[in-house]
Amino acid sequence: MFEVTFLGAFVAGVLAFLSPCVLPIIPAYLSYISGVGVEELQKERKTFNFKVFASALFFVIGFSLVFTALGAGATALGQLLRSYQEVIAKAGGGLVIFFGLHFAGLLIRENFLREFLGVGALVSAFYFFGYLNKEAYFSLVGAFLTVVGLYLLGMHQVLYRQLKSEVKASASFLGAFLIGVVFAFGWTPCIGPVLGSILFLASQQETVREGAMLLLSFSFGLGLPFLIAGLLISAFLGFVRRFSRFFGAVEIVGGILLISLGLLIVLDKLSWFASLGVGI
Question: pLDDT higher for 147 or 17?
């Protein structure tokens, strides 16, 4: 049902890294896992710090192993539910749209529900005037109800709740690896929407290997800039300061990509999108 390019998963990982509540705290995380103080990193004139880079490497290995295992598990579960694939796809597409609305910061708008109901009314008007066929319309209605249901259940508040790690700091490479494992199971809410979308796509793959490779690609997209940050820590600190002005654009672009992905899933058009060579 789904043709997914690994490049798309890689881009999703990079997007997760650049999200406004991940990128700004990377210097603190590098300091945390390496035992090198942030002030020391800022004052350091040399570009390369082996301890910081090696710690970042073990950290990336830790979360990559967990994400890859989750991808394989999602595919195995998806195979068990293959007979319900069409229903799962419709509901899952609605979930991805919900994630996109969260990523773009739209769920916390004061008038979000009223505005979203207005969008639903507009879609209905397209249907009644003959611009949408029956199948597409009811697929969109299902996704619409999924988003509204999740919103009314307060899931948007859960996503915006900041998670706090209780893991004690460790300057050892083993400690960095273990923190990476913990990171994979529960880090900031920002990575949740993107990761959740990729996991859903993994659940729709034909083989466990494809699902695992999809999440490995995502991990590489998330981990590569982390390794670059560890390798060029001094330059990276300056980059974070300069890039902060674009955080709003990252949220909007990321949200639009996820919403578009959700719509393609709901309308069963993802394989067509992938055939263009730009699929996620």
Answer: 147
